[in-house]
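Dear support,

I submitted the protein below through the web form. The confirmation email said the job was done, but the results page showed an empty box. After a refresh the structure appeared. I'm attaching both so you can tell me whether what I see now is the final result or a partial one.
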Amino acid sequence: MNSFWDEYRRKLRTPEEAVKVVKSGDWVDYTTSLGFPELLDKALAERRDELTDVKIRGNMLFGPLAVVECDPTREHFYYNSWHCSAYERKLCDEGLCNYIPMIFRNVVPYYHYFLTVNVAMIAVTPMDKHGYFNLSGATGVAKGILDKADIVVVEINEKLPRIRGGFDEVIHIDEVDYIVEGPHGPLPMIPKGTPSEEDQKIADILLRYIKDGCTMQFGIGSMPELVGANLAKSDLKDLGMHTELCSNAFYELYKAGKLTNRRKTIHKDKGMMGIVIGSQEVYDWVDDNPGVVIAPLEYVNSPETIGKLDNMVSINSCISVDLYGQVCAESVGLRQISGTGGQLDFLTGAAMSHGGKAFICMTSAFTDKQGVKHSRILPHFQGDIVTDPRSQAYFLVTEYGAVNLTGRTTWERAEELISIAHPDFRDDLIKAAEAQKIWRQSNRR
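What the results page shows now:
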């Protein structure tokens, strides 16, 4: 044990010393969410005038990013994200961030086979007596990125929860080149949204499809949070967790005694996740909890893994859907909003599960800043990015109902989707379906 601490002291640097390893033209990685290396980011930004064309990858970072804020021309630092947080979306709007198209289960293989990482920087827990740093809420992608990096710099964040895992949840000091320390503020948290009346109706519809013993996956956003809260108040029991993102919704289920994981067909008695972002209560809950494990997303999000879980229920949100059943969950036209994330992974996996179901949810309409109402069900997309192809469409849900598009013809899909569209837009959608030759005269109006 003493040798580990001797090695620790040899590798200890100030943030300013550690970032000297970065050279112009390098690819630098900040990993994801709780792994954001705040101290190293600030120190690297201080080197702005010494560096050009340093390309940085991250995802779901809540900001601010000093390397972006200090360089509005992007001459020195060029930031890119695998999945946009609200902060990163704002950067995209300002031309200060580029999105990297992906499917989350494939992110680490992308690094393994195709990408360069000159320097990886990540926030980790303090080292344990065995010489290991826990990768905490960044475990879903972190180890694969660190393995590919030429140089690994870890930043000790004393606030991070230490999360148990099956594999790749730690990095040993032997694999680390430099270590930095320093004080940190509170961990980033997802604020609880205020559900609308339409959101509540959607959540009520979803509850009809969930039964005792189902294993749940919730995406990010107010809708999954609301469903979790409703499940916590329901009579359901023995629910399980197998999810890319562990957030407040699962903690609500745990507090209510609904989340036992007893009926899971794999990883029985343990909730599994790849990333954690929530409240401080959530971070306290997952800290050194034997009932919660974290694993890389190439395993958690694998459809083959998900398909082994009987009665798997996947609940995610989208921005819009067209009459063919194509789902857009990441852009408004060409404006990047978030990313593909794991939605398609869980849509595919839940469809493979015995008794499984996948739900994509949206309000039927929205009102823009000018007060104009728009339908979320569109005749066809015009530049919107397709997150889920029509060939994999499953349940689509609005406040007007749920429809299952599996195996449906184009005219059946048009009829089903128009039936859950906002009534103000149904006549226009029928006219569009007729013009697109996907409407039968026998369809009900």
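Response: this is the final, complete result; the empty box was a page-load delay. The first helix runs from residue 2 to 11.
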